[in-house]
Every structure is written in C-alpha cells, then in structure tokens.
Fold each of these.
Amino acid sequence: MIILCGCVSPCAQAAQSVGLDATLSPEHLGRETTVGFGFQISARDGRPPSPLTDVEVRYPDHLGLALSGLGFASCSASLLEAVGSAACPANSLMGYGTATAEIPIGPSHLYETAHVTIFRAPAQAGQVGLLFHVEAASPVSAELVFPGLLLSAAPPFAGSIDIKVPLVPGLPFGPNVAVVKLAMTVGPTSKIFYYERVHGKTLRYHPRGVLLPDSCPRGGFPFAAAFGFEDGSHARAETTVPCPSAAGRAGP
C-alpha cells in the first residue's frame, strides 16, 4: 500500500494523511470478480481529521464496472430517504460496506461504525448513478443517502467512483463527524440476490461480477483515490493489486 498526503496552499492546519487498499476477489484472469476498496484517514497532528466532503476512487483499465452484470434496476434517492433500503428493487443492489467515524467528546474520542449499502441510481447525463445508504445508531443516530457517479478516467484507469459526502453534525455544540475509515465491495457477494421471471416463474440468482481481463497489466492492477475535506485540504493515495500467480489464472 502506498500512502501519500497533501493539502492546498497555504496548507490548512489539520492536513490529512490517507491510506488506500484494494482487492479483487477472486482474482482469476478472464473471470468475474468482486471489487473491494477501502481507505483510512488520520490527521498528522494526532487530532481528529477534518470531515470528508468528497472522494474519487479510480479503478484500473479493462475493469468495466459500468458494464458488469450489476444494477439491472435503479432506486431513487427520494424513495430511499422516505422508506429505506427495503423499498429499492433487489436488482438495484450493487454492494455493501462499513464506515467508521471519529466523534470528539472533550479530550476523548468515540468511534462509531455505520453500515453502508450501495444501489444503482438513475443515470445522470449519460453517466451511471449510484446511491449510498448509510445507517448509524449510537452515539450519533443518523441515516444518510448521498449520491455517486461512475465516470470515465484517463489511462491507466478505466473510470472512477465519484462520491459526494454530506457533512454530518456531531454532538451538540461539537464539530462535524469525521470519517476515518471506509471499506466497500462492489460485486456478487453471498448477500446479493437478483430475481428474473422465466416461463412464468421467478428465479433467484447471484448476479455476475466485474469481468477481469484475460491478461494482467504490467506491474498489477492500479487504484488511486483523491480526497477533499471540510478544512479545504486535499489528499491523494494509490495502491496496486498484484498480478495473480499462475495458480490464480483461469484455465482454458
């Protein structure tokens, strides 16, 4: 994992450091996979980092998230906000994740983990839309819905997941909640089932994942991410998923 950090000029006092991880599971060339990515955020001075406002995760070339067998249906933000994830079509579910927030209380800090569900959303200007549904219970109760887009990116990347993160108030008279860790998977985990009508019967099945190319790029599959924060600072990170061994390559 490679960790980079940066900030705007002049640098904000609480410039952030970030680390990025990525996985392809299973990693068999020429076959379908589930894409995982995660990041960790910390402030260089030991205090809680500034709240995250946006993140862009770039994924490798020849890895077609937009063309995968995921997201045959879409869910609207208004329906998701009014009713919850149960109201979204099963065939709009694309992945799951967790997010950890740091909440300062005086000189000490509390950590809260929230569950994240990813849905396909209606297209925006020809781009694939995403919705992220976040549910947290204690010590800060919150249910959030925020948008994302699958965008194109310059080589060596195929595209990017662009996420706008809303600011979440913390405890009364305290600062906004700071996300310090996030992990997500996009693909056919054991929890994702789709439904299809065939000859008058409803069949349940696991959707196809993201297709890996037949050959691995030189040096492995690159991922990169860019982050923006409430204090005006910015940070970047990158990592690479190594090419699979001969044992991990698809057979004829």
Note: Confidence is low (pLDDT under 50) at residues 1-14.
Amino acid sequence: MSEPKSPRRLRVSDLPERAKTLFEISPDTDELAMIAQQLDLEALRKLRFAGYVEADHDNDWRLEAELGATVVQPCVVTLEPVTTRLDENVIRHFVAHLPEDESDADEIELPEDESIERLGREIDLEAVMIEALALVLPLYPRTPGATIENVLVTEPGATPLSDEDMRPFAGLKSLRDKLKNDD
C-alpha cells in the first residue's frame, strides 16, 4: 500500500497553529521532465523536497525543508553532459504584513532577508521547490579537466592580436622598450 501523496499547495487557513505540517514531494518521471524543460536542463534524474511548515509569530509561517536533486546540464566548454548532485537546506518566511507595492511610490524598500515572501492564501510548495532548485543549479558546469584554450584567429600572413596587445597602454610599453634600447 502506497503512502498518500503530500499536497503541493497548502491553504493557510487550514494549517494548524500549534503543530508542524509535514510534507514530502517526489515528482514522477513526467513531472521531472517538465521541470527539466522549464529550467533548461538536459535531464532531472531525481528530485525530493521534504520538510515542514509551522506558525511563526502572529500571522506568519516558516517553511524549512531539504532539497535533493540530481541534474544533468551541458558543459560550458565541451557541451558534454555534466551530472551534479545537489543537496540544499531551504528556509522561507511567509510574512503577512509586507509593505504594499505602490506604483506611485518613488522608492520601495525591500527586506534584506531573501527568504522572506509575501503570505497569500496558499503556500505553493511546488513553486518553492522549483525556485530553490533553480537557485542552486551550477551556473557554469564543466566536465572534469575541461579548460578554455586561447584561440588566435587572423588573416594569413598577419600577426594575431593577443590580450596583451589589446591593453590600453600596450603601445606605450613598446615605445618605452624602444627608448631603452636606443640608450
């Protein structure tokens, strides 16, 4: 007999104020493929998001969870597949009273704590999971030993420009060297 599936969205009005609400999300194969496509991954082999939501202060809620995933991305150098295991602790504070977004305001002050989100009628666990995964993905995945080589391209018979030649004072250096040799 299989365990009941955790809800993907929690209605705030249904959450108990004196107890933790446990959840665990493990997307099936089709869902993994959709998330992989959404995040521009070659593949998403595993994904698990498990934790709890509990009351935090007056009308606020706190989510604590562990995110585990195995992702496949193209190497930024060779384009070969790079498999990465990700394990991340996720914390979100859903706050009932954040400053309203006023379009007339010249300046809106945002909280410095990036884990703070506006509390709505529901807490979308799936959205938190996908956002947390997107934030921990390697920006520049590389296969072991992959390096970027310097490539110099120019017309036949011409001397290619190097990074040193492109520096603003490269011409002054050659002039200085020439003046030293003349002395």
Note: The mean pLDDT is 83.
